[in-house]
Specification:
This protein is an alpha/beta fold and 211 residues long. It is built from 4 helices and 22 strands. The strands form 4 sheets. The protein has an 8-stranded mixed sheet, with helices on one face. It has a 6-stranded parallel sheet with strand order 6-8-11-14-17-20, with no helix packed on it. The chain has a 4-stranded parallel sheet with strand order 3-2-1-4. The mean pLDDT is 96.
Length: 211
């Protein structure tokens, strides 16, 4: 069985491993340190990050939900490892959209995710279970869309932002996309009807800046 390396040992990494198994790939998990290695109690092989170069012949993804940590790992290994995508077989795509997604690297697309059409996607994004990314959205690198979130059409998710579980980002327009700013967090269940500033936290219905 072919292998895929997965940085991380937490729940997000194991969810990435579930996608790997669904694709007929054996996951090889990468622990940050000895403490993470000792805490591992699941039936799959795990290695230390310091030994990862011994497996440079296999592709990797970064199964770490925290955007800043995922970005740091990607930067650390950008010249020594190859990064691929993990896309669950149940994810669905509009015309030509799967091909667009395959042009990026490090994407994790979980079960039930739905992409329509005209969407651009950066590198190392996570689209968790049952997320919806609608037409003409732009998703920059290192974005995380949590389970059940609904990103309506003509939305720009800027680099490093987080859309919480069950959140709704209401639609923008062809000439004026709805924007969630860089490194901004949208809380679980929030409904965004206006643009969100960068480096902020939004919550509520309708969503308001709380930090």
């Amino acid at each position: 069985m072919n292998r895929v390396g997965i940085f991380g040992t937490s729940g997000m990494a194991r969810e990435a491993g579930d996608i790997a198994w669904a694709l007929g790939l054996e996951p090889l998990y990468v622990a940050r340190d000895e403490a993470e290695l000792r805490a591992w109690c699941f039936p799959a092989k795990v290695i230390l990050e310091q030994d990862v170069d011994q497996y440079a012949d296999i592709p990797f993804v970064i199964g770490i939900g925290e955007n800043n940590i995922r970005r740091a790992v990607a930067e650390r290994f950008k010249d020594s490892l190859s990064f691929s995508n993990l896309i669950h077989p149940s994810a669905t795509f509009g015309c030509g959209q799967r091909d667009v997604l395959e042009q990026c690297k490090g994407a994790i697309v979980a079960a039930g995710a739905r992409f329509t059409s005209g969407i651009t996607v950066g590198d190392f994004c996570i689209f968790n279970q049952n997320t919806t990314i609608a037409h003409d959205c732009a998703v920059d690198s290192f974005v995380h869309v949590a389970p059940g979130a609904n990103v309506s059409g003509s939305v720009h998710l800027k680099q490093g932002c987080w859309v919480g579980s069950g959140a709704v980002i209401n639609q923008g327009s062809n000439t004026d996309k709805r924007v969630v700013g860089e490194n901004t967090m949208v809380g679980a269940g929030a409904v965004v009807i206006n643009d969100c500033e960068a480096n902020a936290v939004y919550a509520g219905v309708p969503a308001k800046r709380i930090k």
